[in-house]
Amino acid sequence: MLTKLYHTLAVVSLAVVLAGGGLAAYLYFSGRVNAADFAQIAQILRGQARASPPPAEPAPPPPPPETPADLPPPVSRGEAPLRRAELERARRDVQAERELLSRSLEDLIARSAQFERQKAEWLAQQQKLRSEAREAGFARELEYLARLAPKQAKEHLVLTWKKDPSGAVRLINAVPTAVGLRILDQMRSQDEIVILHELLEQLRTLQADSSREAQDAKRGVAANERRPERKP
Hints:
Layout: H1 2-29, H2 35-46, H3 80-147, H4 150-163, H5 165-174, H6 177-185, H7 190-226
């Protein structure tokens, strides 16, 4: 039984091989399959064939060149003179505006300089008025001080010294000597003696400075007189 089965399978296998060989011979001699195709079929049957890569997609076509949309359209021959006239008019307008701005700037500078001069003159005038007012007030203060009783005049001088020592020195220096002696004679306490000493020291320094300035002025005048005049 088994022998018959093996025999039958052998016959069938041989028939399959012969049929396959006949089909292969037919395909080869008919030109439908060549040797390379048979080799590839053999590799596939042995499991050695590699899957072929998928075909590459075609590259997209290059984009069209971009054209700037903000470029002005070409000027025709008839429009060229009109464009030139417009440009010339715009140039003249700009030049006129520049000249107007320059004149306005010069006028502003002149007005600013005039304002500064007027301000300086006004400040000098105010300073002069204040100085004259102070001098007038000082003269009136001297007049009152000379007519006060010595004790009251002394109290005023001491209070002035405590607030403004230079003002007190100026007062005692400006009053007549007899009036000043009567006022200073009232300064008898210890604190008043100290103030008296400081007053006299300041008077001495003031007199020395005045004498030095007077001598310098005299020497300057003498030097100018001795200086020879330059001939033209």
